[in-house]
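Long-time lurker, finally posting.

We've been working with Lysosomal Pro-X carboxypeptidase (Salix udensis) and I want a structural starting point before designing mutants. I don't trust myself to interpret raw outputs, so I'm hoping someone here can both generate the structure tokens and explain anything notable. Sequence follows.
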Amino acid sequence: MPFGNKSYKSAETLGYLNSQQALADFAILIRSLKHNLSSEASPVVVFGGSYGGMLAAWFRLKYPHIAIGALASSAPILQFDDITPWSSFYDVVSQDFKEASLNCYEVIKGSWAELEALSAQKEGLTELSRTFRACQDLHSLDSVWDWLWSAFVYTAMVNYPTEANFMMPLPAYPVQAMCKIIDGFPSGASKITRVFAAASLYYNYSRAEKCFKLEHGPDAHGLHGWDWQACTEMVMPMSCSQESMFPPSGFSYKEFAEDCMKTFGAKPRPHWITTEFGGKRIDRALKRSGGNIIFSNGMQDPWSRGGVLKNISSTIIALVTEKGAHHVDFRFATKDDPEWLKELRRKEVEIIQGWIDQYYADLKRLNNE
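Top reply, 14 upvotes:
Generated this for you. Predicted structure of Lysosomal Pro-X carboxypeptidase:
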């Protein structure tokens, strides 16, 4: 927060929140640490997950003289322009729920129309305020929509095999747990009641909440900063296909740019990331100019389709797990971790150990010349 509490105040201060600035900050930090710790010859490997994973991969490309390698977990570096199908993110969210239970997927898919019909009735919003245990009376359907949408998307992202509290405290395999709630209702129950109960798992697994702040809720994860980045450089077009459990929708750059202008007074640069870091035909570019990067992705993660899913060279490796969720390899190890997750981490350690061994072997040879 370079300007303290005023950092998020305007486009002038937020302008420093961008990927190139972040990479440069890390470069200066690493050089400073090495100098201050008298460890100029020590090798450095950068680790990152999600946006941090993108930074890790890009750092290795931009600053190869500072980091000998990068582990980029769940890094959607191909989610830009038209490299990845725009509907892929929500298609994966939907697939996660469909695999857990077809009925669950269909209840969620049908709930949006039910919500719309109820909100159009005279006392509809009052009834929704009651059903969703809102702390204050609701003024629009949008807040209910966003509340549910966020719960389903984030739960798919963090569908971890063990209990975790990354976004919220959640049980192991929370998508399955949500679907169990939906499927547990008697056949006469409304879709609205079912989806509320399922989303409550995400917002209230600890059962501490007496009511929910559906409107003007707290920005617990600092997502306002991401909104700024999405409105400037991180332009990732997304749409919902007919296969999605969310209502079908397209992506309009014009509408998106107008919203960004209204919110931040800034205009998006839709092709900047692929200009600055590349993306199209990434395999050709990285084969020629990159090395020592692990891209790890779990196919349960909606962001995985924008990641690197195939080996590019002998030193740019893709590790893909069928049951993995968003940077699951970076979660704390627990006694309940499944064997596939332990194996993934073993592979990562083995590859990184190889980079370090190679670095010291090269250093020794240079010193002997």
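Before you design anything, note these points.
The first helix runs from residue 11 to 14.
The mean pLDDT is 94.
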